[in-house]
Structure formats: C-alpha cells, structure tokens
Design a protein that fits this description.
- The longest helix has 17 residues.
- Helix 6 packs across helix 7.
- Helix 7 links the parallel strand 8 and strand 9.
- It is globular, with a radius of gyration of 24 Å.
- It is of the alpha/beta class and 637 residues long.
- The two termini are 30 Å apart.
- The protein is built from 20 helices and 36 strands.
Length: 637
C-alpha cells in the first residue's frame, strides 16, 4: 500500500524558472505563492480573464462591454467581443509540425501548420457548397483521425457548430444525440479498426442518416475501402476545390460545439460551449497547468466522443504539435501507448487513470521516453499506487498531473501546476479561475472533509446553454438545483488545508466506462425494450481510479426465464446500440427494482450496498415503494 500524500516529486528551481506560468506571473507582477495567484484569479475574475486574453494575444476584437455581466447561472462574458476559435488555433509559422497521426497498424501521417490550413480551407469550401453557414450544425461519426480535426476547424471557421460521436457507438445512441441538434451535414466513416479487427459501420451510418431528416448530405470517409452510397459525396469530393481560408468572427458566446453528458433520466444533455470561453480556458489550462507550448508534442488517448478529444485539439491553441491516435490502447499489448510515446518523442502523455493502473498491474516498464516531461491522468481518480508506479517505472523527473473536470466545462478545474510538488493520490491545486470548494449538505464550505464539489463563481467555459432549452430550465436543474447560484458538479472532493485536492468519484450514478460517460437512462432504453424485461437497474462499481464491474439486474416479465439466449441477446443489443464498453460483466435476476415513493430507481443506494454498506444504512426504507427488495442486492444474499 502507498500512503496517500506521500511526496513523490518536487519542482527544481530550473523547472520553476522554465514554467510558462512563471513568466505569466512575472508579467503580472505577482511574486507570491501559487495559492495567492489562484485566490486573485477567482476573487477578481474580470481582471484575471482579461489578463489571459492580453497575455496570449487572442486574435479578435474585445469590445468595450463589461467582462462579466450577471451571475451564475446567467453570467455573460466579454460583451461586444468577436473572435473565432479556428483563427486562433491556426495561427503560427506555417512550417512547424502541427499534427501527427498514428494508428494501431503503424500508419503515420504528418502535417505542417500550412498543410492543415490548406486542408481546412478546402473542407471549408466544400461545406459551403453543401449549404453550411453561420449557426448550422455539422455532425461527425468518426474516429480520432486527421479528417475529424480538419472538419472541426473548417466548421468552426464558418461559425457553424460541430458535434461528434465515436463510431463504436450504436445507431440509437448516436441518433439520440444528433437528432436533437438537427445537423445539415453528417461526416461519417464506413468503419474502423480496433484491437486488430475491422468493424464495418456502413449500415449503421445509413441507419443514422435515415433518422436525421434535416441532412442535406452524408460525407463518406472510406476507412475500410467501402464505396459511398449512390449520390453521397466522398471526403475527396468535399476537399476537391480550394478557396482562400477565411474566418467568421462571432460573439464570445457563439456556439462552437455541442458535447453530450448524460444524467439518469431523459435524453443525453446537449451541452453548448462558446468560441470565446473555450479559447480562453484552453489557452490558460494547457499553457499553465499542462505547461505546453511550441516544441511540445501533446498526446491524449481519447475518442471523438469524449471531451478529451476537444481538449487535445486545443493543443493547437498553445502552439504544440498534436498527436492523434486511432486504435486500441492495448493492441498488440498493454504497452502500446508507451511505445507510441517513445517513437513520437511525446513531451506530454495523457490517458485515463485505468490505463495507468492496467500498466501497473501488468508490470509494464516503459522505455525510451527521453523527452517526456508530463503525464496527464483523468476520467476517474488515480489511486496512490498509480502515482507511485509512474515515479518508479516511467521516470522520477516527470510531472504527473491527475486532472479532474468534466464535459460540462470541457476542462479540468482541479489539476497540476509545475510550481507545486506531486503527492500520491493528491491533485496539487485548484486551477486558475476555477472557484472550487467542497460543500457539506447544508451548503457550508468545508476543508479537510469529503463533500460535494461545487464552483462558486462563473467560468467562461461553462455552457452557454443546452440545445433546445430556450428557458434554461434544464440547464439550471442540472447544476443549480441543490445550491442556488452555485454549480454542483456531482463529484466527491476533499480540499486539503494547503489547497491540494482528492477526488473520490461521482456522487451521482452516471456510468463512466473507459472515460466515456453515459447516462443510465440510455442503458434502460435498450434493456427494457425487450419484452421479457419488466424492469432493470445498472450499477457501475468502479471507484478510486480502478474500473469496476458493470452489473445489470433485471426483473423478468411473468413466465419468462433468464436464459442463456436472453443474456446473449441483451449483450448484443447493448454492444450494438450503446458501445462495447457498456456490455455488462454480469446479469442477475432480482424480484424487483428498488424505487422511491415517487418512482425513481435507487441506483446510488444499491451501489453503496454492493460496495459493502449495510442495507439499512444505504437507504431510507420509509421513503421506498418496495423496501423488501433491497436485501436481494446485498453481497451475502
């Protein structure tokens, strides 16, 4: 066992001098400790975020309106300003290497910034020919390939709105997302390769397109060599003609992309982020907390369905080379990503905490990481043993940055900074501009105790809205229902007296498998469509950086048995319609699903019971409609 808080790394004077945040602090005239600068950043947000705009020389016009108008949940930023994400991402010397792509078969492509600009210009012209303009939506069903990055930047350059899903998602999950935003164009692959196998998605693409009546075109990317359907333009058709690259400057809060985060009821939440908020947040976070800039090679293992893809692309804003990878993290072996990092001279390596834990358990000994300065870990909390493994096996000089945030803000609000030491299981700090506190149930701020992670002041990368939520009611209900005027994120956190943080996982019941968050309601829509299933409950037992087991409990209709055939059909449906990550490890029959008097499934109490909490402590039986069924979920039942 590794003791939580054990010191593993301290910045040397040379590291502190070289850190990009040090130069920023010197420009501001701040000579104090990091915690002093953090306090200033959250207590004087208008001055802080203006300094970010000025320090990085953001391209655009700032206008003469107030920096912040209003309070959460209705805060507006930089009134009167105009800018474009793509214009800021694509600035710099055209000869520098901007993007490198690798896949698990060994293919490698490299693009200079000038080449990326030309490809963006060509795809932008193609989108215009398809009728895409300001405010239109472009949806993509694509893996982490250069075409995804190029299409996103082309979409953003027009002031159109991007949204993407990974091609391992099934058609119902994709249409649940894309149908909400009514895209004009769908960009899709015919299939993908993963773990050494090819997966044809041609029919899935046709099914998705058939359920999106607003589409004018489906652009076909032939990753597996399939012919495009009759009349469908190919990727080569889309990029066939060149036109000068232009950028539509839009208001600060103009929608940039739609991401999705699911709760326990209803369709996935379509979260809209604005151009300005993402530009400022990603410049700040990537440059000061990940310490990225020109000369760095930035990698994060992700799919296009996870917000970390959007964060990875943000490396272009910081001037780094972005390394894209399409394929399995463990093919042909668990060491695949470490080998990739060595071959590409990666300086910052990001992954999910479960990959670090899996590497530790497999006894992996990474080699050749001579240029590696930082390692990012996110998706779930990394246990102290994972921290210690990095320093014993990867290298004693790397800066391990456990990072926690969410799709909701498309960043981390607690994470690393090169000015502070690394201690096992502890996230070093609250990020600049993120007013993170821990609340007890009464709404009092607490230190040294586990409480609800809340944000007490607005951040510019908070959603500008949810799509199709004109009243803002769904947005308010998602974050502000428990503590009026304060954002409740849904994580357990302990803030230490020195500003360090420990995350203890989700305080709600959203499923988090391999870094992909998916609401249980999506799971139930698949399972409960089976006529044999009367009711169901899904529980993810993962905690503290380790992926747990995904357990499905079903109550069967009268006269039905939980046969091998039914189990096989359930697994196939979940794999096909959700994703391979969401196939249950175990399926059990129970006599009933515990519900409150108002009919809500008791997911969180059942999870507590499965993890060892006594039944009578996990739930209030008096508040239940059927308390007698709880005992069936006890481990010793």
């Amino acid at each position: 066992m590794v003791e939580e808080g054990a010191l593993l790394w301290e910045p040397t004077p040379d590291v502190v001098r070289a850190a990009r945040i040090t130069r920023y602090m010197e420009r501001l005239g701040h000579t104090g400790a990091y915690e002093d600068v953090w306090k200033w950043s959250v207590e004087s947000p208008a001055d802080f975020w203006t300094s970010i705009w000025d320090y990085f020389g953001v391209i655009g016009t700032r206008g003469d309106g107030p920096v912040i108008r209003g309070t959460m949940p209705d805060a507006e930023w930089f009134a009167g300003s105009a800018l474009n994400y793509a214009e800021n991402a694509l600035r710099g010397h055209p000869g520098r290497t901007a993007v490198v792509f690798r896949d698990e078969s060994g293919s490698r492509w490299q693009y200079s910034l000038g080449e990326i600009r030309e490809e963006v210009a060509r795809v932008r012209a193609g989108l215009v020919r398809l009728g895409v303009g300001l405010g239109d939506r472009v949806a993509a069903y694509v893996p982490n390939i250069p075409e995804a990055l190029i299409a996103f930047l082309a979409t953003a350059s027009l002031g159109a709105i991007w949204s993407s899903c990974s091609p391992d998602f099934g058609a119902p999950s994709v249409t649940d997302r894309f149908a909400q935003i009514e895209p004009k164009v769908l960009i899709a692959v015919d299939g993908y390769r993963y773990g050494g196998k090819a997966y044809d998605r041609s029919e899935v693409v046709r099914e998705i397109a058939g359920k999106l009546p607003t589409l004018r075109a489906t652009v076909w990317i032939p990753r597996l060599g399939a012919e495009a359907p009759d009349g469908a333009p190919s990727w080569d058709d889309l990029r066939a003609e060149f036109a000068p690259l232009e950028f539509e400057r839009v208001p600060f809060g103009h929608p940039l992309w739609v991401l999705y985060s699911s709760g326990t009821t209803g369709l996935p939440k379509p979260i809209v982020h604005g151009h300005g908020g993402i530009v400022l947040e990603h410049l700040k976070s990537l440059s000061f907390h990940q310490d990225l800039g020109e000369g760095d090679v930035f990698f994060w293992y992700t799919t296009t369905g996870w917000m970390m893809w959007n964060y990875l692309i943000g490396g272009l804003l910081a001037g780094a080379t972005v390394l894209l990878y399409d394929g399995s993290a463990a093919h042909p072996g668990i060491e695949a990503l470490w080998r990739l990092a060595a071959e590409e001279d990666v300086t910052y390596f990001g992954t999910g905490a479960p990959y670090i834990v899996a590497s530790m358990k497999a006894g992996v000994k990474p080699e050749g990481l001579d240029r590696l300065r930082g390692i990012g870990s996110t998706g779930s909390p990394l246990p102290p043993e994972g921290f210690a493994w990095v320093y014993s096996e990867v290298g004693p000089g790397v800066q391990l940055g456990s990072f926690s945030g969410g799709t909701d803000v498309c960043t981390g609000f607690v994470g690393p900074v090169p000015l502070l030491p690394i201690r096992a299981g502890v996230i070093p700090c609250r990020c600049l501009g993120a007013s993170v506190e821990s609340f007890d149930p009464s709404g009092a701020s607490i230190v040294g105790e586990v409480g609800e992670l809340v944000i007490t002041r607005p951040m510019p990368s908070m959603p500008v809205m949810f799509w199709n939520d004109p009243s803002g009611d769904r947005y308010r209900e998602s974050y502000f229902a428990d503590y009026p005027g304060v954002w409740r994120h849904g994580d357990w956190i302990k803030i230490l007296p020195d500003g360090g943080c420990v995350i203890y996982g989700r305080s709600d019941s959203t499923l988090n498998r391999g870094g992909v968050r998916m609401g249980t309601s999506e799971f139930y829509r698949v399972v409960e469509r089976f006529e044999e299933i009367a009711d169901s409950l899904v529980i993810d037992t993962g905690q503290l950086g380790q992926e747990g087991r995904l357990l499905l409990f079903v109550t069967l209709a009268d006269g039905t048995a939980l046969s091998d055939d039914l189990i096989a059909r359930l697994r196939t449906a979940l794999r096909t319609e959700l994703s391979p990550r969401h196939v249950p490890d175990e399926i059990h029959e129970v006599p009933g699903i515990p519900r409150t008097l108002s009919g809500k499934k008791l997911e969180v109490p059942v999870r507590k019971i499965l993890l060892g909490t006594p039944v009578d402590r996990a739930a209030n039986r008096d508040a239940m409609a059927n308390p007698e069924v709880l005992s069936h979920f006890a481990p010793d039942h």
